[in-house]
């Protein structure tokens, strides 16, 4: 790349996705061609990738964006005055602006780059709790949370003397809003709730939860790891105070994510980590901290991954999240029709509002055996507790097999899953 060429943070050129959007159509086969790994053969059979709740595959544009950074723009950010450093900084900050627009944050400085949803929640649990929680205070979560939205609050409560309270879920895997409201009281200092359950697929009414909490002056964190890749997100419309998401579930690289936080809260919170770039001045007597967002971004970040995350946001934006949501709703309905009539299978969770996640048990077959035998058919699903052991305990199972859908999946792949399950049942008959 010459000195006169644009940095790789420039808008993506017109692509197949751009043509699809202009044509107002969703061409899943064209989308699939954007993902090189979908051409892989697994045990000699075409890959059917149904583990998107765990991590998503990456389109060529994202792969090339990360490689292109190392080929053409590799430098550290915010420090160098030479051209490579300027290009790297612009690419990195360009990704921040893209993330701001993607979730409709009011201000660019409200986007904090983290390693992912887990670190984003840990940041709030550490920093917000240090300035807020006192002995006897309470943090309120639900019975369907991922470990990343349980353990950080346990740690925060252990260090402050606060108490973690859990709102139970129904046999259908839903929250009863009246129970949630009754669980809030004068001691509740924060509500932290998952938007879409990674183990059940339940879509929680987070906007209503936020309104109920704000009526009592309680801030709310939303774990958006499983919602952001599948539906339009508007943090201002939701009204939440914090929102966490991960790039690798959004067709971007691992090791990068976002904490959105309302600026007035982030301003009050102490730094999460100390080191380079989060300071404005350091002496042995006193350190003055940098402005937002840099106060929370200590050390050299995952620059290449952040740039590629920006490319993933471009990709999703070009396709249109409303179209992604509509396509996945079609997949979900197709799966429901297939599995509702299947004998010997138990679906875990039956919420009225659900995302594209199916956790199930087969009579007499351990989930690990199911996943292993499906792998022999080229079908990738997840088996285990899905980092949600309390959910497994609630439903009295040690683990489940989970199939989860993404924007490149097809009804034919769900048919293949159903056929694969029938083969597993036959083997154990």
Question: Could you characterize the architecture of this molecule?
Answer:
Helices cover 39% and strands 16% of the residues. With 429 residues, it is α/β, with parallel strands linked by helices. The strands form 5 sheets. A 7-stranded mixed beta sheet has the order 4-10-9-8-7-5-6, with helices on both faces. Strands 13-14-17-16 form a 4-stranded antiparallel beta sheet, with helices on one face. The chain has a two-stranded antiparallel sheet with strand order 1-2. Strand 7 (188-194), helix 8 and strand 8 form a beta-alpha-beta unit. The protein is globular, with a radius of gyration of 22 Å. It starts with 15 loop residues before the first helix and ends with a helix. Mean pLDDT is 93; it is low at 1-23.
Topology:
Elements: H1 16-22, H2 28-33, E1 41-42, E2 45-46, E3 48-49, H3 60-73, H4 83-103, E4 111-114, H5 117-132, E5 138-142, H6 151-160, E6 163-167, H7 177-183, E7 188-194, H8 206-214, E8 220-223, H9 235-238, E9 242-246, E10 257-261, H10 263-268, E11 279-282, E12 287-289, H11 303-319, H12 321-340, E13 345-347, E14 357-362, H13 367-375, E15 379-380, E16 382-384, H14 389-394, E17 400-404, H15 411-427
Parallel strand pairs: 3-15, 5-6, 5-7, 7-8, 8-9
Antiparallel strand pairs: 1-2, 4-10, 9-10, 11-12, 13-14, 14-17, 16-17
Helix pairs in contact: 3-11, 4-11, 5-6, 12-15
Describe this protein with a few key phrases:
429 residues, alpha/beta, Aspartate Aminotransferase, domain 2, seven-stranded mixed β-sheet, four-stranded antiparallel β-sheet, 15 helices, disordered N terminus
């Amino acid at each position: 790349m010459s000195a006169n060429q644009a940095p790789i943070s420039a808008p993506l050129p017109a692509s197949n996705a751009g043509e699809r959007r202009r044509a107002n159509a969703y061409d899943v086969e064209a989308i699939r061609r954007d993902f090189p790994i979908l051409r892989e053969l697994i045990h000699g059979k075409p890959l059917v990738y149904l583990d998107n709740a765990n991590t998503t595959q990456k389109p060529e544009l994202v792969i090339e964006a990360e490689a292109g950074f190392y080929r053409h723009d590799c430098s550290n950010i915010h420090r160098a005055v030479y051209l490579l450093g300027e290009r790297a900084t612009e690419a990195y900050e360009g990704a921040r602006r893209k993330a701001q627009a993607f979730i409709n944050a009011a201000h660019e400085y409200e986007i904090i780059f983290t390693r992912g949803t887990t670190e984003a929640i840990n940041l709030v649990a550490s920093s917000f709790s240090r300035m807020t929680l006192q002995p006897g205070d309470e943090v309120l979560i639900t019975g369907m949370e991922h470990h990343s939205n349980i353990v950080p609050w346990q740690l925060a409560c252990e260090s402050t003397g606060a108490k973690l309270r859990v709102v139970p879920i129904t046999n259908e895997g839903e929250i009863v809003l009246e129970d949630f409201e009754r669980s809030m009281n004068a001691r509740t200092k924060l509500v932290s709730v998952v938007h879409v359950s990674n183990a059940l697929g339940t879509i929680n009414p987070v906007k209503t939860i936020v309104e109920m909490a704000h009526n009592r002056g309680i801030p709310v964190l939303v774990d958006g790891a499983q919602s952001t890749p599948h539906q339009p997100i508007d943090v201002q419309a939701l009204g939440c105070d914090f929102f966490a998401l991960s790039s690798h579930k959004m067709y971007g690289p691992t090791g990068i994510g976002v904490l959105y936080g309302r600026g007035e809260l982030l301003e009050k919170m102490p730094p999460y980590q100390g080191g380079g770039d989060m300071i404005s001045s350091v002496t042995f007597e006193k350190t003055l901290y940098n402005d937002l967002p840099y106060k929370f971004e200590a050390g050299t970040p995952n620059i290449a991954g952040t740039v590629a995350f920006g490319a993933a946001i471009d990709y999703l934006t070009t396709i249109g999240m409303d179209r992604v949501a509509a396509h996945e709703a079609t997949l979900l309905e197709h799966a429901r029709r297939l599995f509702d009539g299947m004998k010997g299978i138990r679906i875990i969770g039956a919420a009225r509002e659900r995302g594209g996640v199916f956790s199930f048990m087969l009579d007499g077959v351990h989930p690990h055996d199911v996943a292993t035998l499906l792998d022999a058919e080229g079908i990738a699903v997840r088996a285990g507790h899905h980092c949600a052991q309390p959910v497994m305990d609630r439903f009295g199972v040690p683990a489940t097999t989970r199939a989860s859908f993404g924007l490149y999946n097809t009804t034919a792949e769900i048919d293949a899953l159903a056929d694969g399950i029938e083969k597993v049942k036959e083997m154990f008959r």
